[in-house]
Specification:
Layout lengths: L1 H6 L22 E6 L7 H15 L4 E5 L10 H11 L15 H9 L5 E4 L11 H8 L1 H4 L14 E7 L1 H7 L8 E6 H4 L14 E7 L2 E2 L3 E2 L4 H4 L5 H14 L11 H17 L1 E11 L6 E9 L2 H15 E4 L5 E5 L8 H4 L1 H4 L10 E6 L9 H10 L4 H10 L1 H4 L2 H9 L7 E6 L4 H6 L3 E2 L2 H7 L8 E7 L2 E8 L6 E4 H6 L40
Parallel strand pairs: 2-3, 2-6, 6-9, 11-18, 12-13, 12-17, 13-14, 14-15
Antiparallel strand pairs: 1-10, 4-5, 7-8, 9-10, 16-17
Helix pairs in contact: 2-3, 7-11, 10-18, 16-18
Amino acid sequence: FVSYCKKNSTNTTTSHKPMSNSKDSAPNSLFCRLGSEASSLSDDEIKATLHSFLDKIGPREDVMLLPPDFTRFHSQAGKISRFICEYYNFTGSEMQNQGEETAAKKQHVETSESSPNITILPALGTHFPMTKDQIKKMFGEKLAEKEDAFLVHDWRNDVDTIGHAPKELVEKATNGMVSKPWPAQLNKHVWQRRKHDPEKQHHKSLIISIGQVVPHEVMGMANFNKNLFVGVGGVEAINLSHFIGAVHGMEKMMGRASNPLRSILNYASEHFLQRELDLWYILTVMGANEKTGDIEMKGFYIGNDIECYNLACDLSLKVNFTMLEKEPKKIIVHLDEDEFHSTWLGNKSIYRTRMAIADDGELIVLAPGVRQFGEDGKIDKLIRAHGYIGTPAILSAMEENEDLKENLSAVAHLIHGSSEGRFSITYCPGHLSKEETEGVGFKYGDLEEMEALYNVKNLKDGWNTVTANGVEEEIYFISNPALGLWAVERRFEGSCEANSNTGTSIKVDASKDQQAVGNSGGVGGWVKPPLEKK
């Protein structure tokens, strides 16, 4: 990783000027790259850059925004969406509520050249729809009032298969387990915007995908075309993509912008999206302020091809990736009680630390809110039946079990959640019994006792020296595993050469029998939002 950053040091995102130079010309494929590790980009900088970009784009009659859902609130995609809507006079400025009218607002009124129809399609993937309160918090009051502008992605029914990536790419990524083309699937409301009637709409519809680049356990690095093919994609493609990531090996994926699964998505982008859609990406890199701990924007990128994504990945690895000098023998991870209710979600504690922890080390997961394994009954039942028992055993079980074959997302989750016997995992759930926890392959820890030994209020992120049971020990503490990736250099570099999942004779007919799994919340998806407690 260190040599990688030095090798690509010329691409470090230090420019604070848009890459295009003529107002009358179309934007360059890389319009801007703003920020650095030390940056804290302001709203004024972001808004000015957006206005310059939209000026270059020119008048439009139809604009579609593809921001993430509330689970990516800290991406600032909601704020960026609001700025775009203010530019196009779709909403007034939020500042007007306070009787303010800034110079930036005056400039916006003067430079806006059109007032297009705007549609906002949150990239839910398989998540449940955003609530009104979430929309209001993420996008602001004025935009939330435009209820008709928001569409809900239905990954089962509202998708078109727009093409296929060759089976050779899938065979390579799955070590021969799957020998079928990968179906590129896209929400039909997005795909229909490839065409327009010039007599009714002078310009092609503008599509803007907005999101945060951060290390990711399935895709290597999040966002870019993942926001299209997963965020507003379909069940067959999503389940297969997660399975590909699992069988290829999570350690070989995380923190890498280039990997076999991303190559499949890149093929689909180049052959379908870039040829048919007027699609632009707005990517952010978020990090914690060293002094205050507050999340702030470190990087901001606009482009219509892979270059802006690669630049964002370079910065994200510097901001969101912690390379440790030594392997912790014990890692303590805290899962927020309101955010993590299942191991399906809470196992980020395993994914994001597995390349850091020492052999025979111990991962202790303090999980006061965890009350189940899956996010629905069917997935929960599969997890309880098979457990987190390692890749070979799960692949063998899949060969014999039709439920697993038809729910590749569950297979991927069970693979991801195992330490493969290299280190131990002690789960301390607030609402699961010892028998239930040990039944899926984890060690059980009493939450109250563990919290007394490792009081999170007294721990800082990183290395700590504590006294537990009268013995002084060094631990590594992580307050939120979703915010980063941790590794030691030998495991991160060495995992590139790993072949842990090769050599299998198992074959998977991934596209014939795939079924959407109801109410699973993550990969498996929701049939409908859960009932809110009154």
